[in-house]
Amino acid sequence: TGSIEAKEGISAGIAAAGRARTGAVAIDAANGPDAITAPGHVFPLIARDGGVLVRTGHTEAAVDLARLAGLNPSGVICEIMKDDGTMARLDDLIAFAQFRMEPAPALPDLPDFLTTHIDPLTGEDNTYDYDGGAAGGVTTHLPQMGIPQPSAEDLGTDPAQWAGLVSRNAPCPCGSGLKYKHCHGQVA
Fold first, then answer.
1. Does residue 49 fall inside a structural domain?
2. Has residue 155 been placed in a domain?
3. Do the domain assignments include residue 11?
4. Alpha helix (H) ranges present in 6-87?
5. Could you please report the per-residue DSSP string of 79-120?
6. What is the mean pLDDT of residues 27-34?
7. Disulfide check for 180: which of 49, 137, 152, 185 has CB 3.0–4.6 Å away?
8. Residue 175: helix, strand or coil by DSSP?
9. How far apart are the C-alpha atoms of 61 and 107, rounded to whole Å?
10. Residue 103: how many CA atoms within 13 Å on its side-chain side?
């Protein structure tokens, strides 16, 4: 993609405030293409569909975190520069976070969270489903696999073979009326 800039509300555009304004204007659904000019000082990136489960990149992580928070699926990322003008690397960032007494989340934490807490077949957030009660809200940003809920006849008679084909929160195909995870899909 080419560089962009907000058409109004900034001065030269190179300052952090101008870049922040450009980001805000670019993601505002009320604005059209006429609110942006090119070239500019902000370089838009496009996250891959499927987010960090498809590509473990900073762009995808920013968008996935915004979606998990229920916000506009967009984000602003930047690189932190060291005093010598080079880009900070992981060890530098950990030291920076410790200096500021802030946590330094690792990018691999997000895919682990999503695969642990988000049902890959339904997109339901199971984070608070500890007691077998109702799961949390549906998270629509994850790629839906498009797999129809199969019946026991479609799957065969061995429930052990159903894993990965039946959503944990779907009705169990055996007809028990229970969620799959509470019937044959027990989670250890």
1. yes
2. no
3. yes
4. 16-27, 58-68
5. -PBPTTSSBP-HHHHHHHHHHTT-----TTHHHHHHHHHB-T
6. 90
7. 185
8. coil
9. 7
10. 4
- Residue ranges of E strands in the chain: 4-6, 36-42
Encoded amino acid at 74, one letter: S
> Is the distance from CB of 9 to CB of 21 less than 8 angstroms?
yes
pTM (2 d.p.) = 0.56
Report the distance separating Cα 4 and Cα 42, nearest Å: 5
Neighbours of 105 (CB within 10 A): 12
**15: in domain:** yes
Instruction: Find the domain containing 15 and state its range.
Output: 4-77
b/e code 26-55 from CB counts within 10 Å (16+ = b):
bbeeeeeeebbeeebbbebeebeeebbbee
Domain count, the chain: 1
Listed residue (133, 109, 137, 113) closest to 123, CA to CA: 137
Per-residue model confidence as pLDDT tens digits over 84-113: 999 988 888 888 888 877 776 666 667 766
